[in-house]
Amino acid sequence: MITVENLTKRYGGFTAVDNISFEVRPGSVVGFLGPNGAGKSTAMRMMTGLTPVTSGRSTILGKSYRDLHNPGRQVGVMLDASAQHPGRTGREVLRLAGIQIGVPKSRVEEALAIVGLTDEEASRRVRNYSLGMRQRLGLASALLGQPEVLILDEPANGLDPQGIHWMRGLLRNFADGGGTVLLSSHLLHEVQVIADDLVMIGRGQIVAMGTKDELLSRGGTTVRSNDDAALLAALQRAGVTVNDISSGLVVDAEPGVVGQIALDERIVLLELRSGGGEALEEMFLSLTAATSREGTAA
After folding, report:
1. Fewer beta carbons under 10 A from the terminal one: N or C of the chain?
2. Average pLDDT over residues 255-283
3. CB 65 within 8 A of CB 75
4. 147 in the same domain as 84
5. CA 245, CA 239: separation in Å to the nearest integer?
6. pLDDT digits 0-9 by tens, 79-110
7. Three-class SS state of 261
8. 46 is in which domain, residue-wise?
């Protein structure tokens, strides 16, 4: 369980994180979404005790991160996968981390196997790792202590499509086993696939949050037919607001209403679903457009 209450961080006159509150429940994956520079990384650093809080508080498993007895065994954290000693091998990085949190050497090999780093790869110096391999090593470090909670900042960076698919399965299985996952990203689609809940942040403020289904329903109904022009006209005659997108229509009405109108007009539907990636992305962009700090570090 992660609880964030009125969390705020100011640097002089600049507010990086502005009074945000949300929860991450056990058994769930929460996507923490926002454009680059929105304040995601700063918020996560405050949650894990790396950045002092100006006001508000956050707790993990009912305590502040600093008050956890052995946080490495309870909370797996990956905030910067590139922050690993380049002269050590991947296995050495994990063994040192294991000594610090008190896990046996056998757990190092288990963690390497979980993230798919081979024996040969684990024996390489980190300086010779690709970004994707560093991400896998960072995830291995986060999982090393068999934690109850994962806090991950942009874990998909540098992973190829196969790696992203693997990571989704890993995190989904972790949550389905009762774990708690907070996952930040600026890649809406990648988080949307596995997240149960979404928290959208822009310029340090939460601009929208809720279950994925709730936010998708805000995006309307996505529909495609064998005659989108005729369907568009029929929907407009019925007084329904419609947006024409490249892959069909996004309609401000329930799927049942759209389906009935199509049936009455004898229009064959090829697709009919609540929300959709395009609708959610459009909503996200509209909510964060005025608050984006593109080019500024998070």
Report:
1. N
2. 81
3. yes
4. yes
5. 19
6. 987 888 999 999 999 999 999 999 999 999 99
7. helix
8. 2-209
